Automatic annotation (TrEMBL):
InterPro entries associated with the record: Impact, Impact_N, Impact_N_sf, Ribosomal_Su5_D2-typ_SF
GO BP annotations listed: regulation of translational initiation
Residues annotated as transmembrane: none
Species in which this protein is naturally found: Cryomorpha ignava
Name of this chain's protein: YigZ family protein
């Protein structure tokens, strides 16, 4: 298993125009299929009048989970060339979506492939591509009255954190170097009501 992987740290956008058609490309970091679904909803809401929103995504350090969707375009003319750009840049944990507005002139399958590929590449080039290290991920479960203890531990240890849910039954995800996994247990061992859920290394 590789201990490093390439992904996107900040989103990117691109616009490719050809024969009156416009192709808006979007590149996002994504950690789960649920997050991908939310990002696609956002893009579709912003472009509610567009004919097609084709996309491709890949998840996992071994790049084992991926999907390409043509969204009504001819088979393999949209999603596959987008996925090809993900593979070209050796990215994972990413979603690339391309929105197409038809300009009145048919592009043909070859033209569609080129347009979707180019818009995807432009979005990736506009994003910030980074090499990241494998991290151990935990989900911390706690009641609201333990908020201060949890957030103090996060600040003191400088843990990367994301996906906070601060309703009455709270949770937050933490990512740390695998060799520092014991920090989690040490930080919360005095609190029996703060539960640590190990999510794996990725």
């Amino acid at each position: 298993m590789s201990f490093n992987y390439n992904t996107i740290s900040t989103p990117g956008t691109g616009l490719y125009k050809v024969k009156g058609s416009k192709h808006f490309g979007y590149a996002y970091n994504a950690r789960s299929e649920e997050e991908i679904a939310g990002l696609l909803e956002k893009v579709k809401a912003e472009h509610h009048s567009a004919r097609h929103v084709a996309y491709a995504w890949r998840l996992g350090i071994e790049k084992e989970h991926y999907r390409a969707n043509d969204d009504g375009e001819p088979a393999n003319s949209a999603g596959k060339p987008i996925l090809g750009q993900i593979e070209k840049y050796d990215l994972t944990n990413v979603l690339i979506a391309v929105v197409r507005y038809f300009g009145g002139t048919k592009l043909g399958v070859g033209g569609l492939i080129d347009a979707y590929r180019t818009a995807a590449q432009m979005a990736i080039d506009d994003a910030t591509v980074v090499e990241k290290q494998l991290l151990a991920h935990f989900k911390i479960h706690f009641e609201y009255d333990r908020m201060s203890e949890v957030m103090l531990a996060i600040r003191v240890n400088a843990w990367e954190n994301f996906d906070p849910d601060f309703r009455q039954s709270c949770s937050i995800k933490i990512a740390i170097l695998p060799e520092k996994k014991d920090e989690i247990e040490l930080a919360f061992q005095a609190f029996s009501d703060i539960r640590r859920e190990y999510l794996g290394i990725y």
